[in-house]
Amino acid sequence: MNYYKNKVAWCHLCNQGWVEIVQEKKTGNLLIACSECESMWRHPDDIKNQKKFTSAFDTTIEDTVEDEEDVFLIFESYVEIQHPTDKDVQTKKWGKYIIEN
Asked: For the whole prediction, is pTM greater than 0.85?
């Protein structure tokens, strides 16, 4: 088994897990998620932006954010994720973000 096959960064929020490309089961959309704290981003380029993440445990917008347009909430309810296929990752052109070692 290839653990963290689609890792794109070390999570700067929790400093405990890999941020990986994952796929929402219901929609097939690709997302970026931390393997430990479950924070998520819509795109690999957003990982270092403190305003563009959400967590499965968040139910409100962060108090520190001044402009609501800079924030998104993925979770209106629990989101089931799975590992995407290599084809899904390549179709979205996210393969270039994957850390190989």
From this structure: no
